[in-house]
Amino acid sequence: MKKTLFIVVIILAVILALPVINLVRWAFVPKKPIDIILVDKTVPTLERENHKSFNWILTNERIVKKGDKSSYSYIKDYYGFSPQRPLREKQWDRNDYRLTDLINLAEKNDAVYFTDTYGVFFNDWYKGINKSRKSRKLYGGLNNNDFLLIKEMKDRNKLIIMEYNSFDYPTAQFESVRTQEKLGITFSGWTGKYFATLDTAAKDFPIWMTAMYRKQYNKPWQFTKPGIVILKEKDIIVLEEGTHLKNAMPHIITDQANTEKFGVPVSVAFDKWFDIIDPLANKIVSKFKLETTTLGDTLLSENTLLNEFPAVVQEPVSQRIYYFSGDFANSDIPYWTSRFQGIEKIKGIFYSDKPDDTRRFFWLYYRPLINSIFTDYYNSINKK
Known about the structure:
31% of the residues lie in helices and 25% in strands. Strand 11 and strand 12 form a beta hairpin. The protein is an alpha/beta fold. It has helices spanning 2-27, 52-60, 102-108, 122-125, 144-155, 173-183, 208-217, 256-262, 294-301, 347-350, 360-381; strands spanning 32-33, 36-40, 63-64, 79-83, 92-95, 111-116, 120-121, 137-139, 159-163, 186-195, 227-232, 235-240, 245-254, 267-269, 274-278, 283-292, 308-314, 321-324. The longest helix has 26 residues, at 2-27. The strands form four sheets. The chain has a ten-stranded mixed sheet, sandwiched between helices. It has eleven helices and 18 strands. The radius of gyration is 22 Å and the shape is globular.
């Protein structure tokens, strides 16, 4: 009995000691000072999920501000929409850079990352409002100052990262086109998303899509299985599992050279919004792949689309401009884990070995991709 109790005590002691050990290990990881401009215009909650996972990586990898060497705060250290406490009062502020700030920002900072520019809309902010149609914008979209900041950063050969929905509504066409030109890509106008069920009775299903479908095809929405919806202005394509798709879940595919360079897997599931671009002269790091049937291929080809299209592209000369064709930074990650070294090894808790487990995207793809990009950039700007 005493021996059993002793063993239990030892096991408990080890379990309790591991977090402390990993916290101490994290504290001794060398800091990498990089000044980063983070822009997130889509912050409808205090959780700030459209950029919090990026800040998790910065903290975990010890990427800090140059001035006081402190970690970046996902609550304060960004430009964009800022909800105020208490949230029930629906008060919000905006933290924008002015035209007169741009030269100084570009000179002082090493990198800029636009994690989300879509913005916040009336129905998103004031819950309980009828969501059968799109609502008016409170705040959001790329603007002239954003474009000029990108230009100034590019002129100085700084690191630039942009994500999905930098070019579509509510960004004005003029800002969209010239930003695409600056990045060297062309937006097709098509955006899409995976849905675990296309049943309109599902929670938070965007009902306004059904009206688009009825208007275009003159027949009712009768989809109930998992699927992918692809949209362009007033056009809609619905791909349903079993009919148009062998497997409804999109996957991000990476070739061997880039899996080795960025430390990402060959394939990982992705269930969030994406857009379809033409990379022009840019290098394709990873591609989206839809597992279409013959009928699905036909439906796509009727709209001049393929079942494979870029997921991540990199400017080939300076290799310091990236575009992510998906809502990559939007992940619900427990932020308290960011200060533990080796936390990703506890995969049974945070993700599984199942290929369609979408939690794998952050741990196996987004995290190593961001870490690789910023570590390589840090090393390049600190060469002696």
